[in-house]
């Protein structure tokens, strides 16, 4: 019954998780409650603050899982991709922890871990399957042949899907990050009220930059004619832009399904919380007989449970790294 | 050396030319900041400059990741986007000095978030949309 400690610090979130025999027993993301035992407040962004978060987060993850430090068999950590300064904190911590307890060290690719989050709960996809990873920083379609055998078959050439949502929100005068607000308004509006162009990008790659500009001109032109256009039509505008971003994603996945002949489709990343995307996938499941996998939301955004589960599968294969390991800001899936 | 230059283009195919013009204008002032509204074409222009520097990989927006790095033919290139920073302290938190003073090219989107952290010498690019789709580019050398 291997006990794995997972550490994530690739971007904003400091997170720690304990996985016992493939089951997640704790998944702590640094926030105010994590600091209660130690005092102090939780800072918001990036690397040096991971220093303040990491020990409280690990401490709480171990307590929540009701294990003791000496039960832990290996430490898995995010080696990349991400911000180098942020990755260094998690890497250094994991190395010292492993050295202190004399246990093996496991390096995990953050983008692979997002996909492996599908192996935390049932139902689990079977290999091979396709995964659409959509977040504020990424938009990828990955063909997953096995736990650690993955092929990047499509990616964004400019903005990520989550960023397209956030920037559209900004143009509508909504606060950052505005993606979730667009989703909220969209539920009340007509997705066919306004038409936006679908980017014509060959293959399975994505582009959202042209759509962003088209949306900017649309908002500006409408406001020229009617200064209170947005107040009057916010729900329809949000529903329409959300519909377009979602159809761009779904159409590429549809193309990937056709090209690969694989009809198991998983999603990962923070944008999987978007209700428009979820509905469209469930509709595709009915219409085109796909088998769709959507993980629990806490496993979609950046978290250490996915690092722990990825670490568990590497542990079973006996894939460890030595103390000389260093983080990688760039590391393809 | 000129301190200011201006171009106007009405066709995106002219962008490689402007990218080369910027590189020779910037010279050794390798920290280049980009000002312009959302949708003006900052990321698009930076993609073109990276291509001119021999980058073969995908140049995408670093809004979420804060900084992307690419391998150019001669050296590493750092591409920043400070759009989501709340204050300058957060730039310190990400270790911006390590990048800015590395001697490599640093292309910075949304520099208005870090007005006091720019180095003594830097190059500024201002991109503005003029009459329906055309773009005006201004290059400015700043020395303290």
UniProtKB/TrEMBL annotation, chain A:
Binding site for Fe cation: 110, 114, 302
A Pfam family: TsaD
Binding site for substrate: 133-137, 166, 179, 183, 274
Every Gcp-like domain range: 23-308
Cofactors (names): Fe(2+)
Domain of life: Bacteria
Reaction it catalyzes: L-threonylcarbamoyladenylate + adenosine(37) in tRNA = N(6)-L-threonylcarbamoyladenosine(37) in tRNA + AMP + H(+)
EC number in record: 2.3.1.234
Entries under Gene3D superfamilies matching the protein: 3.30.420.40
UniProt cofactor note: Binds 1 Fe(2+) ion per subunit.
Keyword entries, A-Z: Acyltransferase, Cytoplasm, Iron, Metal-binding, Transferase, tRNA processing
GO biological process, one term: tRNA threonylcarbamoyladenosine modification
Main location: cytoplasm
Localisation per UniProt entry: Cytoplasm
GO cellular component: cytoplasm
Family matches, as InterPro entries: ATPase_NBD, Gcp-like_dom, KAE1/TsaD, Peptidase_M22_CS, TsaD
Similarity remark: Belongs to the KAE1 / TsaD family.
HAMAP family reported in the protein's UniProt record: TsaD (MF_01445)
Function, as annotated: Required for the formation of a threonylcarbamoyl group on adenosine at position 37 (t(6)A37) in tRNAs that read codons beginning with adenine. Is involved in the transfer of the threonylcarbamoyl moiety of threonylcarbamoyl-AMP (TC-AMP) to the N6 group of A37, together with TsaE and TsaB. TsaD likely plays a direct catalytic role in this reaction.
Protein name as annotated: tRNA N6-adenosine threonylcarbamoyltransferase
From TrEMBL, chain B:
Keyword line: ATP-binding, Cytoplasm, Magnesium, Metal-binding, Nucleotide-binding, Transferase, tRNA processing
Primary residence: cytoplasm
One of the GO BP terms on file: tRNA threonylcarbamoyladenosine modification
GO molecular function, one term: metal ion binding
Gene Ontology, cellular component aspect: cytoplasm
Family designation: Belongs to the TsaE family.
Name recorded for this polypeptide: tRNA threonylcarbamoyladenosine biosynthesis protein TsaE
Compartments reported by the entry: Cytoplasm
Presence of the UniProt keyword Isomerase in the record: no
One Pfam match: TsaE
InterPro entries for the chain: P-loop_NTPase (IPR027417), T6A_TsaE (IPR003442)
SUPFAM superfamilies listed in its UniProt record: P-loop containing nucleoside triphosphate hydrolases (SSF52540)
Organism whose genome encodes this protein: Solitalea longa
Taxonomic superkingdom: Bacteria
The UniProt record lists the keyword Iron-sulfur: no
């Amino acid at each position: 019954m291997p006990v794995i400690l997972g550490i994530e610090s690739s971007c904003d979130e400091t997170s720690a998780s304990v996985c016992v025999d493939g089951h997640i027993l704790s998944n702590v993301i640094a926030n105010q409650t994590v600091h209660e035992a130690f005092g102090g407040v939780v800072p918001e962004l990036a690397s040096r603050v991971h220093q303040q978060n990491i020990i409280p987060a690990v401490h709480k993850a171990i307590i929540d899982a009701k294990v003791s430090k000496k039960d832990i068999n290996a430490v898995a950590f995010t080696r990349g991709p991400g911000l180098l300064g942020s990755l260094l904190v998690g890497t250094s911590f994991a190395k010292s922890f492993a050295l202190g307890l004399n246990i093996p060290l496991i390096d995990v690719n953050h983008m692979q871990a997002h996909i492996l989050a599908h192996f935390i709960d049932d139902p689990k996809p079977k290999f091979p399957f396709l995964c659409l990873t959509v977040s504020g920083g990424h938009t990828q379609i990955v063909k997953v042949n096995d736990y650690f055998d993955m092929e990047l078959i499509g990616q964004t050439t400019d903005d990520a899907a989550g960023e397209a949502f956030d920037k559209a929100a900004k143009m509508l005068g909504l606060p950052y990050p505005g993606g979730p607000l667009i989703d909220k308004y969209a539920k009340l509006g007509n997705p066919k009220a306004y038409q936006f162009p679908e980017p014509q990008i060959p293959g399975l790659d994505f582009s959202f930059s042209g759509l962003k500009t088209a949306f900017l001109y649309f908002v500006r032109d409408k406001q020229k004619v009617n200064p209170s256009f947005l107040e009057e039509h916010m729900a329809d505008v949000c529903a329409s832009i959300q519909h377009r971003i979602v159809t761009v994603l779904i159409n590429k996945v549809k193309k990937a399904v056709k090209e690969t002949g694989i009809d198991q489709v998983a999603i990962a990343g923070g944008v999987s919380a978007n209700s428009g995307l979820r509905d469209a996938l469930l509709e595709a499941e009915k219409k085109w007989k796909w088998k769709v996998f959507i993980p629990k939301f806490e496993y979609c955004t950046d978290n250490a449970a996915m690092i722990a589960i990825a670490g568990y599968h590497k542990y079973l294969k006996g894939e460890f790294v030595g103390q000389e390991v260093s983080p990688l800001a760039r590391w393809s899936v | 050396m000129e301190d200011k230059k201006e171009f106007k283009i009405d066709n995106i195919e002219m962008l490689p030319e402007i990218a080369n013009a910027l590189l020779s204008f910037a010279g050794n002032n390798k920290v280049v900041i980009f000002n312009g509204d959302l949708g003006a074409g900052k990321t698009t222009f930076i993609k073109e400059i990276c291509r001119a520097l021999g980058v073969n990989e995908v140049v995408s927006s670093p809004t979420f990741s804060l900084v992307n790095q690419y391998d150019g033919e001669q050296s590493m290139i750092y591409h920043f986007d400070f759009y989501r920073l709340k204050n300058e302290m957060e730039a310190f938190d990400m270790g911006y000095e390590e990048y800015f003073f590395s001697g490599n090219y640093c292309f910075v989107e949304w520099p208005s978030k870090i007005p006091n952290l720019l180095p003594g010498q830097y190059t500024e690019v201002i991109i503005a949309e003029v009459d329906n789709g055309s773009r005006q580019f201004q290059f400015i050398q700043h020395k303290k």
